[in-house]
Amino acid sequence: MSEAIVDSPNADQNIQIRRVAAACGAEISDVDLSQPLDNETFDAIETALVEHEVIVFRDQDISTEDQKAFGRRFGDLTVHPFAPSSEEAPELIVFDNDADNPPWGTDVWHSDETFREAPPLGTMLRALIVPEYGGDTLFASMSAAYDGLSDRMQQFISGLEAVHDFKPFRNLFDSDPASREKLRAFEDRYPPAVHPVVRTHPVSGRKVIFVNPQFTLGIKGMDDAESRALLGLLFHQAEIPEYQYRHQWAPHTMVLWDNRSVQHYAIHDYYPNRRKLERITIKGDKPYSDVPTVALEVVRSRKGARAISHDAHGGHAPKQE
Ligand SMILES: [Fe+2]
Predict the structure, then answer these.
(1) Quick one: three-class SS letters along 115-150?
(2) Residue 204 included in any domain
(3) Is residue 318 part of a domain?
(4) What spacing in Å lies between the alpha carbon of 38 and ligand 1's midpoint?
(5) What is the pTM of this model?
(6) Distance (Å, rounded) from C-alpha 179 to C-alpha 265?
(7) How far is the CA of 4 from the centre of ligand 1 (A)?
(8) Could you give the CA distance from residue 28 to residue 25 in angstroms, rounded to a whole number?
(9) Tally of structural domains, the chain
(10) What is the CATH number of the domain that holds 285?
């Protein structure tokens, strides 16, 4: 055992993991995130993240640098293209909301940054100042939501693809020529991303509903009315309480969520009180789907059957009698 590990308060300790809701969410204790983690402890935390999808650390009086160092164990940190950040710490987003700076844009169900070709693996938020009440964050397990669908619906949506766009951030651009040019540059850099409607989690293999009302525009290959109806049903799944964990913040609480498997909603009910959190974001992979061939064949033959039905017995065909 190296000297560093012997000196670490985390050495020779078993972290405790306690589930705090049925579908997602677990609290991890007996770990000190101000200290480097040995590989065994980190592996246990990484496994817990995939299994519980949202992991919560209480009473971690740590620095921004500690938070970033912990985040880097999971992967590279990324810079949000639209959120303000400082030049010294571009990967850090500070949410500091009060009467003069009301919260904006996070009171909608979403996974972070799905307008990117490779949305983040995870997001880590650490609370510094919290209101006396309010300002909770809701999480919904979209793998539990997928499991809760009927076999028929699972089969129907598997193999579909959806188009995602940075649509809420378009409001940040004014209509003057310079701003429009800036917007066009962002459009070139972040063209609409196409992701599977049912994503396969790259570690657990679980299937996840991967469309959200903040960034998903529509479903490829469907007309607008069909797409809106189906997306409405899928968006609604995040609102079902049985799939949710409601997180209450306290100073020095840090939460890391698996952005591949949960959606979240930041409740805007604390205005004009102050709430300050620091966020870092961990780079992820391009989403994929390992839909079994049989499901794809069903989608194809259904489409084919409808086309055949239209040709042979469609409503436009003249009646024979
Ligand atoms: Fe978010």
Answers:
(1) CCCCCCCEEEEEEEECCCCCCCEEEEEHHHHHHHCC
(2) yes
(3) no
(4) 30
(5) 0.88
(6) 29
(7) 35
(8) 10
(9) 1
(10) 3.60.130.10
Q: What is the pLDDT of residues 29-81, one digit of tens each?
A: 999 999 999 999 999 999 999 999 999 999 999 999 999 999 999 999 999 99
Map tokens 């259904």 to a residue.
302
Q: How far apart are alpha carbons 21 and 43 in whole angstroms?
A: 22
* 152 has catalytic annotation: no
Distance of CA 126 from the midpoint of ligand 1 (Å): 13
For residue 215, being part of any structural domain is answered with yes
Indicate if 112 belongs to the active site.
yes
Decide if 310 is catalytic.
no
pLDDT digits (tens, 9 = 90+) for 249-293: 999 999 999 999 999 999 999 999 999 999 999 999 999 999 853
Contact criterion met (CB below 8 Å) for 143 and 206:
yes
Catalytically annotated residue among 112, 165, 199, 247: 112
Q: Is the pLDDT of residue 294 over 70?
A: no
**Distance set, CA 101 to CA 85, 163, 164 (Å):** 15, 32, 28
Give the HSE-up count for residue 128: Cα atoms under 13 Å, Cβ half-sphere.
14
Please give the residue range of the domain that contains residue 231: 7-307
Catalytic pick from 52, 80, 110, 116?
110
Give the strands of the sheet with 161-164, arranged side by side: 193-196, 161-164, 216-219
Q: pLDDT tens for residues 89-141? A: 899 999 999 999 999 999 999 999 999 999 999 999 999 999 999 999 999 99
Ligand 1 ion local residues (Cβ < 5 A): 112
* Distance in Å, CA 265 to ligand 1 centroid: 7
Range name among 131-140, 182-191, 192-201, 300-309 with the lowest pLDDT average: 300-309
Domain contains 315 = no
114 alpha carbon to ligand 1 midpoint, in Å?
A: 10
Residue pLDDT, tens place only, 298-308: 444 454 443 22
User: 73 an active-site residue?
Assistant: no
